[in-house]
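Obj.: predict assembly geometry.
Materials: sequence records (below).
Method: joint structure prediction, all chains together.
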Amino acid sequence: MKKILSLLLILAMILTACSGGKPPVSQTPETPETPGPAEEQPEDADGGKYAEEQVYKTVYAEEIQTINYLTTTTNVEFALAANLVDTLVDYDMYGVLQPALAETWEVSDDGLTWTFHLRKGVKWLDFEGTEVAETTAHDFVSAAAYILVPENESATANLFYSVIKNAEEYFNGDITDFSEVGIKAEDDYTLVYTLKEPVPYFESMLTYVCFFPAYGPFLEEMGDQFGTTNSALLYNGAYILSEFEPQMHRILTKNPTYWDSENIHIVELNYKYNKEATSLAGEMYKRGEITAVELPASIIDEWMNNPELKAQVRPGTLGNYSWFYAFNFDPKFDAQYEPENWKIAVNNPNFRKSVVSAINRIAAMQTEEPYNPEYRIINTITPPNFAAQGGLDYTQTGALKAITEGDFFDKDKAVEYKNKAVEELTAAGATFPVKILMPYNTNSTSWANEAQVVKQQLETTLGADYIEVTLLPHAPTGFLDGTRRAGNYSFMKVNWGPDYADPQTYTDPFERGFNYNFPEYTTDVTADGQNIFEVYEAKVNEAKAEVTDLAKRFELFAEAEAMLIDNAFVMPYNVSGGGYVASKVHPFEAPYSSFGISSERWKGQKLLAKPMNTEEFEAAQQEWQAAREAALKEAAKK
Amino acid sequence: MKYILIRLSRSLLTLIIVVTVVFLLMRMMPIEGYFGASFDKLDEAQKTAKLNNLGLLDPWYIQLKNFYTDILKGDLGESITYRPKVAITKILGDKLITSIRFGLASLAVSLIVGLSLGIVMARFKGKFWDKLGTCYVVGANAVPAVIYYLLIQVYFTDIFKLPLLYSKSDPKSWILPVLCLSLVNIAYYAMWIRRYMVDELNKDYVRLARAKGLKNKDIMTRHVMRNAFVPMAQYLPASILYTVSGSIYVESLFSIPGTGGLLVTAIQRQDNTLVQALVLLYSSIGIVGLMLGDILMASFDPRIKLSQEGGSR
Amino acid sequence: MTSKKIINNMADNIDPSLFDFAEYDESKSELTGYSNYSFWRSTVQVFMKNKVAVALLILIVTVVLFTLVQPYLPNQKSPTKIYLDPNTGLQYRNVQPNDEFIFGTNSIGQDLWARLWSGTRTSLYIGVAVGIFEAIVGITIGALWGYVRKLDAIITEIYNVWDNIPSTVVLIILTYIMKPSIPTIIFAMCMTGWLQMARFVRNLILIIRDREYNLASRCLGTPTGRIITKNLLPYLVSVIMLRMALAIPAAIGNEVFLSYIGMGLPVDIPSLGNLINEGRALMMDPSQRYQLFFPAAVISVVTISFYVIGNVFADSADPRNHV
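Observations (raw structure tokens):
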């Protein structure tokens, strides 16, 4: 009896586990399943620059969480949305503004009212390609109404209400009538924005997700399920998300009714998910299963040492997240690291300059970019190619030009500064060695390596009797809360990404009361005895107020930034992006924008027959740079 | 029967304790984790709105109360950071099925191959098969699994022309993942059943059976196996039930959309609802598995009495 | 007999000189059979007969001694010092094993030889600490759990609660509150490690707790502690020994897993888990494979040794194998 009972138990368990199971939950249209990535890449056209079959295949390791573009700020997510939904304006491959959903637009004399005239006949499609409605000006208003409701948890709402009149008040509940907010659809094809004050960079903001349209009735119908899966979204962009299975794959197919469809050459974008993409992607690329791969630092050596593979590799394009090392002026760390002593030391300019001059940034960068570390090094907080005025790039403007063309690393100077600092600091009552607390995030091996390299550089060049660097490994959970925001560091690498295409955005981290490096606590003074931060703040405010003479505006910002860098309040380090890719995609044919989502678009891109190699890349980059300068000058004339 | 009922009611209490503890632990995590990288750029109003929506601003006992009332209604809630606003049951549904399928396949393979190997090793103790088996067992455990999984994936797909990644439509893509999953378990079962059998073979009743002239095969299958298997039976129900939590390594490598690594990811992303749902699921399984294992073990060996009265026959 | 003389006829020449008086010593009648048997000595004897196990034991002892001695040998480099390429002034990265760097360097120019031995020291230290804790706490609780019926209910539920709280949550909270470091990881692993040992011991005790000899002991009034230590545990010695021997490789394997999910030791403290994780990313590159090979070799040697030693010791600890 017992034997039978036990056998039955086992059987019951197996049966319950096997049986049941709901049908697959995510939606796929009735078309036959798209062949998996195991399919071989078809042969490329002979002699042609471009591949015969324009299908892009890749693997990715970072899954998106939502497709609701009205709430997200994650790069991968708005990169996806960029191809599914169109915006009022867009950028061309040189970064010059072009009409997109808006055919023409004008701004009032006082700079407060922007009127956009929309293109007619742009349709909203669902995930199966069925037409649902036409895109009208009301869609922008519906999207704005959604964003400005706090319960919808839009992370970009603050960007929207930082410029649009009455938007913040509506968000906070001070106004309850939405019609008072500065966005109106005067008729189906006319959209009017009213700003709080003149904003010279307003057009660049229009490409960001908070200014995307969404079809009102659909938005209401979906409620909080909007954007949770591909059937919960409508498309008017270049592609439709025909298949979406998280942790498996997603497929974008070309939108046949797209208004600019003749410029869309790649007919299908096929993304397959694999958490171990860093280990496997190289292998898959070699087998022809994917079209493009980002080579992780660990296998770059293998590819570079093999001439056949090396010919297929090129540097990746640069991003716009700026990384820099910051000195903390309001230390709040453990007594064992002597915060009081640090406070004295950090306010001494020679001390700061000695530290900055002792760091060989190229060697430090090599931990992340073993080949060509100079590529990502920048000398300013605002990256190059980010904003330009009158054809002149911001980093070449005014006081920044000298900084961009110079370098900080100088071992002899470092020792010179050190000697001066020792004199001055001993007089001020500091003790040596000065303890430097440098945290890093343990989830990044390259950061851990970099921290070790920087520590050793500082201690070797400046001597362990002068400074003592302590590395503070911190878990990724609550990393910023536990280090930067809490003032729990002396010297640390931090980063900032732009919110719009104007140098003003890179002054945000240094605002009084913010939580980066608390420069308002400095006691350091300029040559004529004024507090450095106060001078900086005044300059920035002056620049912000300058909304008409843009060349002057840029110059003022450049002066302010140069102040921070020359006084070694921060040490600019690198810009995101880079790495090496093996890819059949031409990097300079896509729309270019230093901010926003345009760079993520596939418009104008074609798959090459062969992957581009490094020499071709460098040639193409120079070509592009020159053409961009020319195009910007042209545009500035208008 | 009475024993089972008492045990089940105790288990319910345990379950509640576990889920509550995890609930509270998750709320000890920093707030910035719910917002991701853009935390610096958000205004206070936005942060408050989101936290309010998630119910995280209420005092902890209110949050607990809401949580339990929802569960009783059968509502496991929606994910908050993993896939925002998507119902947990929707996320888990498919993944569970996939993991269970792989788990059961691998369990079947491991048991059959592993037990057979172990029996052979015990039977031929000290001779060739034992040595060969020991090499395998030791090898499978000595080299860290991450390494040989990747090697198997890369080299076997090349040699045997198998697909690199798992896809639902291709049955051949099952072979390597199941193989990888089973390798370690085969070693485990083989090693332990060999140990238990060797222990049994030294006992007096075996000597008696041999003296009586029973065939070796009969001694093994009818007497020794049954006794040796008893300690292992304890783990069997739990193993079957635990197939719902897939293997994190194998699923990452082969792109299998299962639950392996889901818990770790959910915890790292601070997706409270998903973590709670998973803990609820895994705890129930663990508790039930332990109980079923005890019952199974007792049913195999009548000398074991689980209930309070005790005493053998 | 004092003299030899052949007597053909009993009636002939029997005289008292042919006989000796047999002395009677009372104390000799108290002598009982004495067997010079010592359990552990026999175990060791049987163990020594297995040449492979002995060889591996010597190997592992050598390895452990070497890791302790290595920093004091001449010409040893520091495991965290970053070496610069004399030509470029940049890090001397990914240098293949050569005269200066016996095992080569890693991606930022640190000496792998030094890192490997330092890492082995760290990992063994963690493994031993966790193993000992597991053994003591696990066996005690497991035995009580299995034997004392009254405690069965409460310990089962404690086990259930403890086991089902995901160790990842505990680990993340711990590394968030305490810095990521060696004591944190030992603490975390100890917290969760004893569970399996306890369950294992409990299962075995459940099987034998009601056997006749235990009933007999209970009838005689033997206290519980004595029953556990004298009746039950010795019966289980062989399997417990095996389990304990495996605890150290298991702790190392656990550490590798934690490094894989990013919860391990920070990279500036070398450990076998870190080294394997770093090397794993380079596995596909033939010129960099050495970074994986050496730590994997060390882990394999350690694991294999403990397995074989554990198994052989378990076999020899079984009294039925003692001759």
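Conclusions so far: Chain B has 13 helices and no strands.
To do: check interface contacts against the pulldown list.
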